[in-house]
Amino acid sequence: MCTVCGCGEGETRIEGHTHSHEHEYSHEHGKNHEHGSSHPHNHDHQHSHNHDYGQGPAHAHAPGLSQSRMVQIETDILSKNNEYAAHNRRWFSEHKILTLNLVSSPGSGKTSLLTRTIDDLKKELTLAVVEGDQQTDNDAQRIRETGVKALQINTGKGCHLDAHMIGHAIDSLELEDKGILFIENVGNLVCPAAFDLGEAHKVAILSVTEGDDKPLKYPDMFHAADVLLLNKTDLLPYVDFDVEKCSDYARRVNPGIKIIQVSATTGKGMDIWYQWIKATQNLALI
Amino acid sequence: MHEMSLCEGILGIIEEHAQNQGFKKVNALWLEIGAFASVEIEALRFSFEVISKNTIAEQARLHIIDIPGTAWCMQCSKTVVIQRRFDACPHCAGYQLQITGGEEMRVKELEVE
Fold it and tell me: How far apart are alpha carbons A223 and B35 in whole angstroms?
């Protein structure tokens, strides 16, 4: 079992974070409810007469048979993830690290944009990267070639990174204070929107080879992002993509979103993206 | 397919309460799911069936309480109901809306024994 938190993570693999136990067995916990029933039952006696009154919703009145009752839960389904995210956020804040969660569909040029960003900024800023993909560590390799620390998380069947995985990644990465951590999420415009990782901002990347109505088709993601990087703008002459329309759609789902047109290939517009990163980092350092 | 992860979360919440409150079986559960929660209800039902196998919630009936999407319209200065995130205000047709409800994803209550 994981020694940090006792987790069983299914098929998730995080570089440098080994799980020696058989994950299959983790499901046994569910069956093993002896733990629950071994808790002291001494309070039962005080309530013993209530059993006859049929307080449950079925109003069953059958001595000896267990009765159903209602339990108010009122708990967020993502509360566990949000706890981990809050923990990550606190840690980032204590170490004055700016964390950016990059989200997009597969093939939008996230990794190319990231490697270019790193090449241009690594001299003046301390950078590190967490790469999320279902399989392979190709992307982490590409990042490491730039000379920057990178950690690959393979989610297996999972379609998104969650805050718990990021917590483990923090432990393995040994991040330097006052740096910037880029998290390249799994290529997916749906699921990563719902999972807070503890980042300061989500940055959505949309390439002009995709449809200009993507912000309307996947509104949750563009609502959750603070910045939209419109990538591959060097291809605009060759594709049917209306930048104005796309920007208008993005602002409809998120009036405050900042939209930056870039080309990771030619470098056009990247300076504005860097300005945003540096300005945001200055805020993180306060 | 993050509905699978959501169901793991739901089961985690149920099992935590089962330990604390000492129940051994869940007959029914009520979930509040907002219109903007990016949850596909059919996928959620399917995932729950898979995830709850061999657990105390295996027999549980899943009830979904739909929470409508609501937003505050800055032009009209009132709360309006919208179907989708990018809908215009039904009164003034403007887009100056701030989402105020519909992002909920909660386990509301359980019927247990």
Answer: 14
Half-sphere exposure of B66 (CA within 13 A, CB side): 7
Residues on chain B touching A31 (C-beta within 8 angstroms):
54-55
Phi and psi angles of residue A219, each rounded to the nearest 5 degrees, phi first: -65, -30
User: HSE on the CB side for B113, CA within 13 Å?
Assistant: 17
Q: What would the two tokens of residue A125 be?
A: 């800023």
**Joined tokens for residue A109:** 């040029």
The CATH number for B79's domain is: 3.30.2320.80
Instruction: List pLDDT tens digits, range B15-64.
Output: 999 999 999 999 999 999 999 988 889 999 999 999 999 999 999 999 99
* Cβ-based contacts of A158 with chain B (< 8 Å): 5
Interface mutation target, options A65, A71, A81, A191, chain B, most CBs of B under 10 Å: A71
Cα separation, B14 vs B21, in Å, equals 10
Query: Which domain does B65 fall in, by range?
Result: 3-112
- What is the pTM for the complete model shown? 0.78
* Residue-by-residue pLDDT tens, chain A, 286 positions: 454 455 655 667 887 765 544 443 344 444 444 444 444 444 444 443 333 334 444 444 444 455 788 888 889 999 989 999 999 999 999 999 999 999 999 999 999 999 999 999 999 999 999 999 989 999 999 999 999 999 999 988 788 999 999 999 999 999 999 999 999 999 999 889 989 999 999 999 999 999 999 999 999 999 999 999 999 999 999 999 999 999 999 999 998 999 999 999 999 999 999 999 999 999 999 8
CA distance B59 to B50: 12
The CA distance from A54 to A42, in Å, is: 21
Homologous superfamily (CATH) of A80-285 is P-loop containing nucleotide triphosphate hydrolases (3.40.50.300)
Give me the phi and psi of A55, to 5 degrees please: -80, -15
- Map out the domains of chain A as residue ranges: 80-285
Inter-chain touch B1–A159, beta carbons under 8 Å: yes
A&B contacts, CB < 8 Å: 123
ipTM of the complex: 0.80
Provide the residue count of chain A.
286
Q: B27: closest CA among A44, A67, A146, A176?
A: A67
